[in-house]
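Now for one specimen:
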Amino acid sequence: MKRGLITATAVAGMLVSVAACGSSDTKKASADGFKGQKLTVWVMSGSNPEQWTKQVSEQFTKKTGATVDFKVQQWNGIQQKLSTALSEDTPPDIVEIGNTQTASYAKAGALADLGDLKKEIGADWNDAFNKAAMADGKQYALPWYAGNRVVMYNKKIWAEAGLKDTPKTRTELFKAFDTIKQKTDAEPLYLPGQNWYFFDGLTIGTGADLVKKDGEKWVSNLADPKVSKAMDIYKQYQAFSTAPKNKDEATPQQAEVFAKGKTGAVIAMGYEAKTAIAANPKIKDDIGFFTIPGETADKPEGVFLGGSNFAVAGMGKKQDLAKEFLKIALSKENDGQMVKEVGWTPKSPDLAAAAKENPAAEAAAPAAEKSGGTTPLIPQWAAVENVPNPIKNYMTAVLNGKAPADAAKDIESEINSRLAKQ
């Protein structure tokens, strides 16, 4: 999902009455034995691109004789709406769920077990993608798409600075930013102080855990020196930017800032290029992408894999038909279409060819494979990301000069309180 500002709410309490497995009143039948039925699939606004939707719908009808009804949902308030829908007797058959939220719904018993289906169609999926579709060792969803951040840069500005090659290490990247600062009138990097998902990627890269177990409870681990190291790296990036230290990448939209042609680079999702082009069509040919380089050339910077899973409602009455849909929607052909059409990161080696048709996806792939990960995959994490996100406050405090350990202490009680809500 496009997760830049998505908030999460605790869901387990809202779903305690949902049966874990549910039952399907669809008779076990051959794939073409569902003629005349309609499958309801909830997708989030902007998630299902036009060509992907068209070909999946046509293939599904051709194979099963049934039709699919995509119901587009808005991000605002979706957690409560989805929680309510999944607890009803007639829920949507398939739902899109944010990959870091799947554990919450699984714990509540709202999702069907898809372990057998995963073995059939996803044996080669990247583990970093699939882990977020599991809970307690079981497959409660299937990864639909995910993306990670890359460097989106202005090729014209880099050429004006005399930069011919893209950096392969973090040191080379910072040197390039410094060269842009010295030789052009452009801002080297636009990086708001609260780009939380980029910071989370840096914690992944340093091996930091944002939470830890204290007896039977999960508690904050922001005081860990590894988290401080990640924040120090973030400070080094942010030093090249004049962006506000107390705003995120959507306030204002960083792609629209980039579109003005006065910024050397942004740390962005691939789809943000479309936003920039919409704001200024003339910038289209100046946009380029490369993998965020890490400390050494062989391992890119750590990245957060933000995206969505498909899940089958545990109380759904058409689970067999839902599984036929997932076989089609998550086929190699249609996964490849998502990569080409949107620029999502390939989730298996077989999609490398599709990535070559989208420069952003091609740039994202190396980091996803070698350095990708997610936020803590525990049900309690949902509440931590709720607005106002306390970790964003931590970031701003450190950027404004507070010691990381002190900034972590300031928000520790808030994080612990949120972790204790489930």
Remarks:
- Residues 160 and 184 are 7 Å apart (CA to CA).
